[in-house]
Structures are given as C-alpha cells and as structure tokens.
C-alpha cells in the first residue's frame, strides 16, 4: 500500500494536511496588453475588477503603467490577467496559454453575441445534445488575446470520474 501511495503523490511518512482555499487561473498576455484584456473581459463577460497591481518603475514617455496583474471576478470565480514582457521569466505561447475556460449560462447565443461584439471571434457553430458538453448546448469563442472560452448551457450533470 505504501508503494501505491508514493505513486499517487503521497509519501511513506505521514505528511501534514495542506488545505487550499482558492484556485486562481492566471492568463498571461503580451505586454502591454493586460489593460486592454481587462477592458475586453469587462465588456464581453461583465467581469468585476477586484484588484490591480501596476509596475511603478515606468519610463516617463510611456502613457499607461504596465499592469503586473489584475484580479478579476466572474461567476463567483476569480482569475488573474497579467502582462508578460520579453524580459520576464514566464513563458508565453502564441495564442494564449493553452487553457480553455468554460462559462455556463442559460443563453448561449446571447453570451456569444456579447463576446463577439466586444472583439472575440466565434469558432464553429453551437453544438447541442450529445455533441455538446454534458449534453447541453455549447459554443466557442476566441478572445483577442488567444484564449478559448466555451460558452455552455448544461442540461444534465457531468459523469463522475472514479479515482
């Protein structure tokens, strides 16, 4: 049994329990586009900006401060949008970070239309039933920063995955 626990991330010695309180996905965008991204997410999805950290050491000729991070709230969840410049240790793949974000709503068409009006691009049509997430309806948009957002309306619970 001890060998199995080690494979699954446990240790042979009892470790102190670690409790996480929050998971905050971080969307990395090419500098200096984080402010534009925040404005887009406000217009497209109605996010609420909770906090912002700006870089204080900015050259005088640059108009806007570089946002180090902005904490945004959407549908009860929090995520962070951050500028990444060429000198940063963080890596930035072209077209977003490779993650897909899922938003659930009862009006998929209206949510997609609002995102497109704010600058997103709809990808494909809206799928229904077995072709969609959890048997509901789903459409997909790509925001101007390369992140893919699934706009879903679920009609049934997703299947439970057994460990």
How would you portray this structure in words?
There is one protein chain. It is built from three helices and eight strands. The strands form two sheets. It has a four-stranded mixed beta sheet, covered by helices on one side. A four-stranded mixed beta sheet has the order 5-8-7-6, covered by helices on one side. α2 (34-45) packs antiparallel against α3 (108-118). It has 163 residues and is of the alpha/beta class. It comes from Tripterygium wilfordii. This is VOC domain-containing protein.
Short description:
This protein is an alpha/beta fold and 163 residues long. Helices cover 18% and strands 33% of the residues. The protein folds into two domains: 23-93, 2,3-Dihydroxybiphenyl 1,2-Dioxygenase, domain 1, CATH 3.10.180.10; 94-156, Signal recognition particle alu RNA binding heterodimer, srp9/1, CATH 3.30.720.110.
